[in-house]
Fold each of these.
Amino acid sequence: MRFAYGILLGIGMHGVAFGATPATPATPDRSPVAVLWMGDAQTLDEGTRVAEEVNAALNRTPGARGLDSAEDRRLLIEGGAVTRVQAIVTRADAAFVKLKMAEAAKEYEAAEQLLSTDVPFLVTQQKLGAVERNLLVCYDQLGRHDDAARAAERLSWTAGSNEDVKTLLDRHLRNRAYQPAWAPVKVTTVPPGALVYRNLQAAGASPLEVAGGDPAVDVLDFEAPGFRRAHVELTHSAGEIVVTLVPEERLGALVDEVRARAPDSPPPLVAKLGKRVGAVRVLALQPDGNKLLARWLDVPSAKWAAASIRVDAAGQPAMDRLAGYAAPAANAGADLSHPVVAAVVGKAAPKVAAKSKWGAWGKWYTWVAAGGVLVLVAALLIAQHVGDDSLTIAVSH
């Protein structure tokens, strides 16, 4: 599904209560529609308002209704841990640039905790380096040397040269070359076959053996499709570490995954989200300035609507239009079998005036100018032959 502006197919945090929209009793002729916000963490306040208004409009629309569960409605806007990390890092960065190091460190620590334990491992690999780099600066400025050493160690696990903080790394990164060589530890997961990472570096699939470590520094991470990520300290005293993975059933994590794969979120994935909340339709909304880009997915068939719409981001007429657009009764029998062609939406190209077959000679002023030039040339030629007598030339139009 494409939500990048100009490409639309066919065209945690805030603690906000989502119970303001009363649920409409379920009846056979009123199909539940899930309102999914596709904006980032900085747009969640707008998403909350829009979702409440759209749900209220759905409850006024024949053949449709909003979801009964206030918790499900909230998570479809707020998302999960990935969205929370985005919001926390935004607050931390704002404090950091103002040199409020203690405040920034507190926020970065909260982001570090989520990145270390609660988000997909790929997100950790992408985001942890920037968090640890700024934590290292904060700890250095605050004189927290042990914490700075830990941040320097974790920063060394991430990709990149880190030349911008080389001086701080030299100051705080502790040399572990003289630590004892600890015996290997056997690592087992239930179910087996999970990918195992030691200090963010791939070690292989379980069961396997890894080098023992310092529990104050070294960590193991485990990830397998369909399961929540697991994170444990790596010791050197235990002969075996057994980790039982927990199925990933959190709605917020599913919302994060759909957003992460935009603008090409697979229809089966969006349909899975719809089934998870008991919806017949999923209405995906992407903020676009003071407008909203909208498209619905039919959950039973896992197919997107052939047409999308763009409406104002506020006002009852726009919300009613969204509700009518997504209501199954309003477009029953719509043909979803045809592939959708991406259309670029923008300002119409300016009209190009038709060219005359005479080109520039089709303009009256061209003939006037040409005539003037000919008269002037003729006059000069005459002057050469008549001598020094004065010559007056009048050109009129």
Note: The CA atoms of residues 303 and 337 lie 8 Å apart.
Amino acid sequence: MARIVEPKIEETNTESDEDNWTIGAEPFKPIDMTQVANKKGKIAAPTSQAIKRAADILRGGDPIGLPTETVYGLAADACSDDAVAKVFALKQRPQFNPLIIHVASIEMAQTLVHMCPLARLVAEHFWPGPLTMVLPRLPDCPVSLLASAGLDTLAIRIPAHPVARALLDEVATPIAAPSANLSGNISPTKAQHVADQLDINIILDGGPCKVGLESTILKVDDNQLILLRPGGIAVAHIEQAIGHAVDPLTNPDKITAPGQMIAHYAPSKPIRLDALDVAASEGLLAFGKPLPGAKMVANLSVGANTTEAAANLFAMMHELDASDCAAIAVMPIPDEGLGQAINDRLQRAAAPRDKS
């Protein structure tokens, strides 16, 4: 009989309300430090003491593990070339792939990038939250050029997670924070996912990531919004909220933002998309009523809800990848709402990887 993993998150939304922050259906509660343990001993509850320690580590030039509402980040001082270089080295990330810069406020963002009226409108609607804008760097922008891969633009956002915001307030400097995993692997949505891959001084444990997908990335070019990466906020929601169209990317072969590499977010096992049947040796990533016959079933959303599925995607991919299933079969997911971002991640996860 197949092992069945049902989703624990019944409802999520991407609105940021710090006073009503929830992880899944449960209120956010800091974890008792005495109850936290992992194989490397680096996971820490997000107490004020731990946040101050993490800030000291950042100021000393070393990266830390940071929860956000999207995925866990490998955070470093964005204005230090050495600290940013450590992030690339730890992740084994190609240096042509830029990083997202996290800031505490719109005012801090305006010291780094030029924000036209349209960019300001987007920020006022969706920051803090899972939306990144790619904007022109100011001439005196202190962020390391390595973080922006030498481009004249910067990918920037304000995170909504209270732990990330507390750390940003404590360090009072921009933070570069790509996903806290080895480059190309499944993104981490739990602190243990980070500890399993990276040996770093501290990982602040903010619980499971509420959104569970990386941020939506928009390039703001004059009076045009261009979708560089689908993510935690659906395009239709952006267009409805601000009354402005979001155009597709016309040159997808040129990397201008994170998450655009063809092979990305990949498990170690083979992955097969749009499965209409499943072998007895395969694990099934289900959506809605599962197909029969799988060795193990992880159901992204029993009710076929794409928001719930997005929140569960990476955690369930981690679980299937750690199982003894020979491969992973993925049921079809509608390409609407957050389904667009889910399918983007799955297509990149299934793409052939360069083994050289």
Note: The CA atoms of residues 222 and 315 lie 38 Å apart.
Amino acid sequence: MKLILYSDHEHNINDLHYALKQRCEAVIIFNRSMADYETDPAFDLAMKQLIEKETPDVFFSIYYYPLISNVCLRYHLPYVSWVFDSPSLSTYSKTVCNPCNYVFLFDRQNYYELKNQGIQTVYHLPLSTNADRLGSVKMSPEDRTKYECDLSLMANMYTDNLYSKIKYLPPYVKGYFSAILEAQMNIYGYHFLRDALTDTIVNEFKTYVKYNMQENYLMDDRQMIIDVFLADQLAFLERVKLINHLSGHFHLTLYTKKHNCAFENVYEGGFLDYNTDMPKAFKGSKINLNTTKRSIQTGIPLRLLDIMGSGGFVISNYQEELLDHFEPDKDLVIYEDLKDLTEKIRYYLAHEDERKEIARRGYEKVKKYYNYDIALDTIFHIVFDTKKKKGRITT
């Protein structure tokens, strides 16, 4: 099998590339930038020329690109996209219905939302990590001095989100948003923002905030407001609240990009390289925290798998799909709210043997079941089985 892999410098592209090379006759990297995910004549031409030159069996990308899908459609070329974020707005493009598509989503609720609209080109598939690579990263004495700590959080703070840039909203509309975001922060495992947005609030928001609601996207105004504006603001508020609470009880290390938050009693370790520094931070921290962005409704985020795949001990917020794949207090620890989280941090800081055993079990499970080889087996089985049923191939 010959495959073209599109790369837009995703942090895990090397792991995917390596896994694909183990099973493909040839993997050709295509890394031209797009001016626009929908239309880019120069990109379209370059992709067309590459396809005609290489005659691949499959085109593959991390994330879904409508432009790539439309080109693949013209060549009857299977287009596999494995989406590592949720929601990924491009998956709501009407091009997702193109019959060449095989779109793999890790969030089951996101998958159901699209499937229930009659879209037959989407599939549910948990994410994967490269535990062989992450687990083999060695810690030098200098690394231990730099990364060893009691408690750490690696997370985007979303301080520069679109909602924070809105210049004006009527006080009652802004107050309404503040109230429902605060309420959502206090409820775990249930997402009610869509139900909370009344027609009046939606229409008022549209009066003061202009955005491009393209007709070729399968999103209504409620979903656009939540996914584009409120989701990042909710993540910002929730993480600030979490950090301020924990820093009053523990020595907390925060790994993130530059931000404008003023935290007290927090050591800031900066932004870490995914391939080199990140696994060292996970190994060096006695307790790694995972706080999942609420827009990931049920799925298991890559960050959590990377922590476990590095051999790190993790305490995570509840996600519905966690219980389908992992055993709480055996493979990882799940917290219910800030009070529960505080108690569990204290407990596991004082019980090193239990902590290390849970980390060991979690690493072994992720290494065995959540690797790229198993996921690619599933992906290509679906792709070529579907093609045979459609009569497109004979082998």
Note: The CA atoms of residues 89 and 227 lie 8 Å apart.
